[in-house]
Each structure stands twice: as C-alpha cells, then as structure tokens.
Amino acid sequence: RKKLVGRDLNEQQLLSLLKKYEKVKLILSPIGAQGFILGRGNPQLSPAVIRKIGVDNIIVVATPSKLASTPLLRVDTGDRELDKLFATKEQMLVIIGYRLMRVAKLQTNNL
Q1: How far apart are CA 45 and CA 14, in angstroms?
Q2: Is 39 helix (H, G, I), strand (E, B) or coil?
Q3: Most buried pick, 8, 38, 46, 67, via CB within 10 A?
Q4: Nearest partner of 33 among 64, 71, 59, 61, judged by Cα
C-alpha cells in the first residue's frame, strides 16, 4: 500500500525516513529552461540522501512543453563521485503524461 510519509522535509528528516523504508522513489521535475533536477534549489537532497535512495530510483516528470524548452537535464550534486555515477547514465526517461515518456540527455557539472 502506498502513502505519503512526509512533505517539505529537510535532509535529516529524509535520512531518518530512509532508515525506516526500504523501497523509495524520488520524483523530480526540472527547474525551468535550466533543466536542473538536482543541485540547485534542493539542498535537502544531499549526496547522502541520493545515495540512500539510489540513482535508479529517481523518476523525472515534466510537461511536454517544459521538456521541449529544456535541452537537457542537469545534475550538480556537489559530490564528484555521485556526479560520475549520474554521468554513466547519459540519459534519463522523463514521464510527460499518462503512459508517455521521452528520453532526455543528462549532463553533470562536476566532471
């Protein structure tokens, strides 16, 4: 059974929840035309939190128009090793509607 377990949480609250729950998904949306999904405006999603969740458990959602104005998805976690992990993906699936997905290129900043 799925349920909301928190809203507007800080890093410590997220880490505490991650100890309690095994299966976790992180849903993100890119910031405007900049395309950042991690690293700008979400400091609570620290490298420790992202590692606990797992790169493969991150889901990106965007409207088709938002994705069209975002040439690529950008990640800047502030952690070189974590950014390298994202760089190996090169691209991510983005949910743009009901049963609709697009592939978006992924760029990291700390390499």
Answers
A1: 8
A2: coil
A3: 38
A4: 71
DSSP reduced 3-state for 13 = helix
Residue 44 and residue 11 in contact, taking contact as beta carbons nearer than 8 Å: yes
Q: Among 46, 43, 98, 109, which residue's Cα sits nearest to residue 72?
A: 109
Contact present, 74 and 67 (Cβ < 8 Å): no
**Domain map of the chain by residue range?**
11-108
Residue type at position 41: G
pLDDT for residue 111 is more than 60 = no
User: What pLDDT does 12 receive?
Assistant: 97
* Structure tokens that stand for 22 in this block: 């095994």
Which residue type, as a one-letter code, is found at position 84?
A: K
**Judging by DSSP bridges, how do beta strands 100-108 and 91-97 pair with one another?**
antiparallel
Look up tokens 């950042």; give the residue: 36
Supply the pTM of this predicted model: 0.87
Per the prediction, the chain carries an average pLDDT of 91
